[in-house]
Write a structure and sequence with these properties.
It contains 39 helices and 46 strands. By secondary structure, the protein is of the alpha/beta class. One of its GO terms (biological process) is pyrimidine nucleotide biosynthetic process.
């Protein structure tokens, strides 16, 4: 501790003031500045320092109650409620909460607020910068997702508040931060050192922020520094220095640094080769864990029990990172995290500490996490907290930092696992868990502010130099989509696999946990048994408990509920702390008791116990004795009859100790009063919920755009969402934020409490749509926009098909089949190929294309049983057709705006995995008109008011010939229609410079509705083209086949502009994490199958052999077929690849200088033994760029043909978004 504190942690010469509230966790403010220096910033010259359940005032004898009654407090509260500041080039109004309303408004110099100017004062030691470059994270991947849109947006808001010009580099067009409202200039270009250098040369910023774009931004910053770019252009790194970043990322240097200050680290050795890794493991002793330097989300890490396992793991890891750390395994210890903030004056606070439900061995991104920690003793808590502060100070962090520990559950032994000297996934979670805006504060610190000079954004009356206290508990649970991928193990370990996460707030662990489980997937009732998590034997069950998978929590439920396992037995099998398991036992006991009551006989006490333990109405209906007839509605009716409704509480950072005007809310049954009054009657906007494959950051952009438009139109807004990675769950975006479930029950509760004016269900993706009809059917509820009955008609295949027939809109032949014979008969009737889709499988997880009867038989077998209870929907699959996307907004059945994008890939690749081109450069005016006519018919038939999206197949008309002028050359068939915002809406909005969501909200409200405008009329004269390409996370999903098909597999997207489609497409590909142009002189491996278009395969071979590349094939037959198309026959070679021998395969790849793989096979392989599967898998395992679609390959070759220097890492000139839009005007 520093000199201001005694050994007990109490500030010297300070009189303690007793504290009434019992809080879950408290900390102590560490400040190297004298406490008296804080007086001028703090309310009524009072300084709060929290520890051991007491609050200390820096002025002895000052009364807390007297302080709260001071005139200055009343003035500050009034100012906080009335003030605000505009930021961004479009005058978007930022949150009042983030702008320092004065504690003492009379202070005009050295204080917080200048009342005359309405501006935030400057810090005493302001960093002199006028223009700052903020580096984004790029496309969303496993390990680096939407949390960086949130943190980057916060950073930009902080910079704009300080009147600093902001330049943003981020090719992720779906993000909120790439909207007009925030940065002054946006570059949709690759986040690479070379492209950053080009932007720096052009924009000449004097500062750069590297901490808000994840590992990608950090790595770029380190590289720029090594290249001398930052020094050459006099660019200051704001916040944590590059040297500190290097120390924290280089595993060996980091370990040495910690040892120098007496902080224990796991025994480890940094290595650069496989042989050195094996030697290190022999010295340390097995088991070991491998960790990669400069990697995100544990990429390349894993546990090795044997030399053989280590050889394979280290070889793969070193193909992904230049250095790895071989470390002694501490699997089974507790994993604890601390989020720490430090300023340049050495003030240091720990904002949040978190504890993993799972013991060490599972990546924290794949673990259930609770905040604050629940099982640590006071001594353990403060030991780790003190160590975290010591580490952050020694490393010289300026901003925000995350420290992760392993703690021996049987002793006080601990060691540091790693430190992230940047904003991270955990930072976003900690921000939402505490209400402390870590990214905003970190950005301000980077500009020179100290913590005492910044305010607490929630109370608006105290400083940021404090540690939050929580009178609630939050639980984070990851979301996995592993079932979507063949050959992928469900085991979870040290390398992250989850695609999203949820955060639930409650006042007991039981309440918080059950909320979180339901948030992960609406089909989960809570802590209950899943049908497919019931092993036949206890031996199998014990194995599932011992070996962690994405379903382990449900195996625990089965063990406790069905098998009678005790908490102690499960603890021995899993290593999960007994405290958590005993809480789960409480839930099991409550379930048992509920079975003793019927819906009618349940007592008020029993109902209260169930609701306080987080049981939903639907869950209770399945547990009561009359469950055969009980429903969610009957339980809700009984609950309200008993007078049991949820209470609304505030997240105020200080557990109610200071009045706070915060709008950050949650519901709980563990309370007796509401913290707010309900007079706004605001519009409820339903967010997207958890990020998952098929629903990601694009819907957060839609939700935020909706709220901003509503506020601009003068309406109060209520946002409901539970995703901590999102901008929509930032409390400065809406009038009221409910961090809560998007279930029918909770939405009804909040709607009724708020006496809402209406609810918007069309901007949050599919999740809100699923409850639209039930909300509509509830008395007193007003669903805004398209009638939910029409939404339901579009979702119902039979009704939708019937309506299309009535309005003369074509669709592929389809039928719902209930027997194997019916299925075979339909396939013979329409002809192969056919698309097989079991109707009872969510997310199309068993969709397949059958090219012949044998394949159909196999796929029907995979779809379990075909029966009246489990029908299979079969559709005629149209080969070699084009697919078009149309996004539109209608008003009372009339289209207002629309955009038509064309897919690069043939129809048959899921639209979420397709590359989109806008404007559609190859489509004729007749095609554009035909698609617009379909949109007009659909809008009118479904009486659409709001956004909608359709996918349309464009196929050659078999009846047409070149001499026939009466028959149209193409047929258009609708394959899907969603009466809501789509994932491509941010893309078309930003490319056309028309906010489709803003138009949709005005249409729905019937207020300021714009006149219809044909955005596509002059699209070919825009002067630019944009392409959107998918971002995959194949490397994370060991065994997954990198194959494009009817199921969506991408985790994110990027989009870039160009003067033509070739420029735009190449820049977009370079913006994805795995792609790079192979250097001339290297090798390219080519694969294909019987269905591949040989003209495209030959085009690929011809180009690369003509450009001084060696083209390899893995079999003689392929060589013979391609020899004639090679521009240089000697450059085409046959090479045998031993795909199953990872050791020799890695050596072979290195010796061949293999830098690119093109695999254009179209048949989905049946097993891992397929050579095309093995080729694709080898590419992603060794981080070799892969092209796996023939149309994409053809466009890529066209794009590369226009590049004069294929060795250049910046082949396309750099232009800002604004420059492209200006060229259009």
């Amino acid at each position: 501790m520093n000199r201001l504190f005694t050994k007990t942690g109490v500030p010297k010469n300070v009189k303690p003031i007793t504290h009434s509230s019992k809080l879950l966790k408290r900390g102590i403010v560490h400040s190297t500045q004298r406490l008296e220096q804080c007086k001028k910033y703090d309310l009524a010259q009072s300084k709060s320092v929290m520890g051991s359940g007491r609050m200390y005032s820096s002025v002895a004898g000052t009364s807390v109650n007297g302080m709260l009654r001071s005139n200055k407090f009343m003035q500050a509260t009034k100012a906080a409620k009335s003030g605000g500041k505009y930021v961004g080039v479009n005058g978007y109004r930022g949150a009042v909460a983030h702008y320092s309303a004065a504690a003492d408004a009379s202070m005009t110099s050295g204080g917080i607020h200048n009342e005359k100017q309405g501006a935030v004062s400057e810090p005493a030691n302001k960093v002199d910068v006028k223009k700052v470059l903020v580096v984004g994270s790029g496309g969303l991947t496993i390990g680096q997702a939407g949390e960086f849109d949130y943190s980057g947006s916060q950073a930009i808001k902080a910079l704009k508040e300080s009147n600093i010009e902001v330049i943003l580099i981020n090719p992720n067009i779906a993000t909120v931060q790439t909207s007009h409202e925030l940065a002054d200039s946006v570059y949709f270009v690759p986040v690479t050192p070379e492209y950053l250098e080009k932007v720096i040369e052009k924009e000449k910023p004097d500062g750069i922020m590297l901490a808000f774009g994840g590992q990608t931004a950090l790595n770029c910053g380190v590289a720029l520094n090594k290249m001398g770019v930052l020094d050459k252009h006099n660019v200051k790194v704001l916040g944590t220095s590059v040297r500190t970043l290097e120390l924290s990322e280089d595993r060996d240097l980091f370990a040495q640094a910690l040892k120098s200050i007496g902080i224990p680290v796991a025994e480890s050795i940094a290595v650069n080769t496989v042989d050195d890794a094996l030697k290190a493991a022999r010295d340390i002793g097995y088991p070991v864990i491998v960790r990669s330097a400069y990697a995100l989300g544990g990429l390349g890490s894993g546990f090795a029990e044997t030399e053989q396992e280590l050889r394979q793991l280290s070889g793969q890891s070193l193909s992904l990172a230049p250095q790895i750390l071989v470390e002694k395994s501490m699997k089974g210890w507790k994993e604890i995290e601390y989020e720490v903030v430090r300023d340049a004056a050495d003030n240091c606070v720990t904002v949040c500490n978190m504890e993993n439900f799972d013991p060490l061995g599972i990546h924290t991104g794949d673990s259930i996490v609770v905040a604050p920690s629940q099982t640590l003793s006071d001594a353990e808590y403060h030991m780790l907290r003190t160590a975290a502060i010591k580490i952050v100070r020694h490393m010289g962090v300026v901003g925000e930092c995350n420290v992760q520990y392993a703690l021996n559950p049987k002793s006080m032994e601990y060691c540091v696992i790693e430190m992230n000297a940047r904003l991270s996934r955990s930072s976003a979670l900690a921000s939402k868990a505490t209400g402390y805006p870590l990214a905003f504060v970190a950005a301000k610190i980077g500009l020179g502010w100290t913590l005492p000079e910044l305010q607490n954004s929630v109370t608006t009356t105290t400083t940021a130099c404090f540690e939050p206290s929580l009178d609630y508990i939050v639980t984070k649970i990851p979301r996995w989509d592993l079932a979507k991928f063949n050959h992928v193990s469900r085991a979870i370990g040290s390398s992250m696999k989850s695609v999203g996460e949820v955060m639930a707030i409650g006042r007991t662990f039981e309440e918080s946990l059950q909320k979180a489980i339901r948030q992960v997937d609406p089909s989960f009732a809570g802590f209950d048994v899943l049908k497919d998590c019931k092993p036949a034997s206890e031996v199998e069950l014990d194995s599932e408990l011992q070996n962690a998978t994405d379903r382990r929590l449900f195996y625990i439920a089965h063990a406790m509920i069905d098998r009678g396992y005790s908490a102690d037995r499960i603890h021995r099998l899993t290593g999960i702390d007994m405290w958590f398991l005993q809480k789960l036992e409480n839930l099991v006991n409550t379930q048992t008791k509920l079975g003793e009551y019927s819906t009618e006989s349940i007592s008020k006490t029993m109902m209260e116990i169930a609701k306080r333990n987080g049981f939903s109405d639907a869950q209770i209906a399945k547990l009561v004795s009359d469950k055969a007839s009980a429903t969610e509605d009957t339980v809700r009716e009984k609950r309200k009859e008993l007078g049991i409704t949820p209470f609304v509480k505030r997240i105020d950072t200080l557990a109610g100790e200071f009045p706070a005007p915060t709008n950050y809310l949650y519901t709980t049954y563990n309370a007796s009063t509401n913290d707010v009054e309900f007079t706004d009657k605001g519009y409820v906007v339903l967010g997207s919920g958890v990020y998952r494959i098929g629903s990601s950051v694009e819907f957060d952009w839609c939700a935020v755009s909706a709220v901003r438009t509503l506020r601009q139109l003068g309406h109060k807004t209520v946002m409901i969402n539970y995703n901590p990675e999102t901008v929509s769950t930032d409390f400065d975006e809406c009038d009221r934020l409910y961090f809560d479930e998007l279930s029918l029950e909770r939405v009804k509760d909040i709607y009724e409490l708020e006496n809402s004016s209406g609810v918007f269900v069309s901007v949050g993706g599919q999740l809100p749509q699923n409850i639209a009809l039930k909300l509509h059917q509830t008395n007193g509820f007003r669903v805004m926009g398209t009638d939910p009955e029409m939404i339901d008609a579009a979702e119902d295949r039979h009704r939708f098909s019937s309506i299309l027939d009535q309005i003369g809109v074509d669709q592929p032949a389809w039928k719902e089949l209930r027997s194997y014979d019916e299925a075979m008969e339909f396939a013979e009737q329409v002809g192969y190929p056919v698309l097989v889709r079991p109707s009872y499988v969510l997310s199309g997880a068993a969709m397949n294309v059958a090219h012949d009867a044998k394949a159909l038989h196999r796929f029907l077998a995979l779809a379990a049983s075909v029966s009246p209870l489990h029908p299979v929907v079969m559709t005629k699959f149209i080969s070699n057709a084009r697919e078009l996307d149309i996004d539109a907004v209608a008003h009372k059945g009339k289209v207002l705006v629309h955009a038509i994008s064309e897919h690069v890939e043939d129809a048959g690749v899921h639209s979420g995995d397709a590359s989109l081109v806008l404007p559609p450069v190859t489509l004729s005016d007749d095609t554009l008109a035909s698609v617009k006519t379909i949109a007009d018919k659909v809008a009118e038939a479904f009486k659409i008011s709001g956004p909608f999206n359709m996918q349309v197949i464009m196929m050659k008309n078999p009846s047409h010939n070149d001499q026939d002028t009466t028959t149209p050359p193409y047929l258009y068939k609708v394959i899907e229609c969603n009466l809501r915002a789509s994932r491509s809406l941010p893309f078309v909005s930003k490319v056309t410079d028309t906010n489709f969501v803003e138009t949709a909200i005005k249409s729905i409200l019937d207020k300021d509705v714009p006149a219809p405008k044909d955005l596509m009329a002059a699209s070919k004269s825009w002067g630019y083209v944009a392409t959107k390409v998918p971002q995959f996370s194949w490397t994370r999903l060991a065994g997954a086949d990198p194959f494009l098909g009817v199921e969506m597999a991408s985790t994110g997207e990027v989009a870039c502009f160009g003067d033509n489609v070739n420029e735009a497409y190449l820049t977009s590909l370079l913006s994805t994490l795995a792609f790079r142009i192979p250097p001339p002189g290297s090798s390219v491996l080519v694969g294909f199958d019987a269905l591949s278009d040989m003209s495209i395969v030959q085009k690929v071979v011809s180009f690369f052999t003509s450009k001084n590349y060696t083209v390899l094939v893995d079999n003689q037959e392929a060589y013979d077929l391609l020899l004639s198309s090679s521009s240089s026959p000697s450059a085409l070679k046959v090479q045998d690849f031993a795909y199953t021998d990872k050791k020799s395969l890695y050596s072979l790849v290195q010796s061949l200088n293999l830098q690119f793989v093109v695999n254009l096979s179209k048949l989905k392989p049946l097993s891992k033994g397929n050579s095309c599967y093995a080729m694709r898998r080898m590419a992603v395992d060794f981080a070799i760029p892969l092209v796996n679609d023939q149309r994409c390959a053809s466009l890529l070759i066209d794009s590369l043909a226009g590049v004069s220097d294929l060795s250049s890492k910046t082949p396309i000139p750099v232009k800002s978004w604004e420059e492209y839009l200006t060229s259009k005007k």
